[in-house]
Amino acid sequence: MDTIKNAIVTEKSSRLVQKNQYTFNVESGLTKTEIKHWAELFFGVKVIAMNSHRLPRKRRRMGPIMGHTMHYRRIIITLQPGYSISISPLGKKRKSLRFNRVTLLHLLKSRKKRK
Description:
The chain is of the alpha+beta class. About 30% of the residues lie in helices and about 35% in strands. Strands 3-6-2-1-7 form a five-stranded antiparallel beta sheet. The chain has a two-stranded antiparallel sheet with strand order 4-5. Binds to 23S rRNA.
């Protein structure tokens, strides 16, 4: 299942919020188009642009075996002026926002029928 993992709260992302840009971690299998539609449907905002990059893997040891953490991407979503997304405070951890591709396609089809 494809998921939007969490919102990122760092110094850089805090500066970007002032420019109406929001940062999220996403599974690497999602495309920019899917992420854009997800953000527009889930948050009810209009997305102007998106930038993404893959973060490096981290090494993990399980006894004598060396492994790696799963790949994921970091995306920066730029919203139209007048729109915003509320990010949870630092102290509280949010669960992953699970969003299935099939659900996304179903929502998009129903949205087109309404128009």
